[in-house]
Description:
Elements: E1 24-28, E2 35-39, E3 47-49, E4 56-58
Antiparallel strand pairs: 1-2, 3-4
Bound molecules: zinc ion.
Zinc ion binds near residues 31, 32, 34, 52 and 53.
Amino acid sequence: xxxxxxxxxxxxxxxxxxxxxxxxxxxxxxxxxxxxxxxxxxxxxxxxxxxxxxxxxxxx
Length: 60
Ligand SMILES: [Zn+2]
């Protein structure tokens, strides 16, 4: 079995001994009324799926 290579993405990886901050976006599902949180959610992304019930959400 080939060894799984770690994804190289240094710009997204927090540096050691540094403070890292993220913006959290909170989404509320219109169907099941539960909510969930995405870190550093892109503001232009309007279509999300509720992780609880799977309903497609159009976030305005
Ligand atoms: Zn839901």
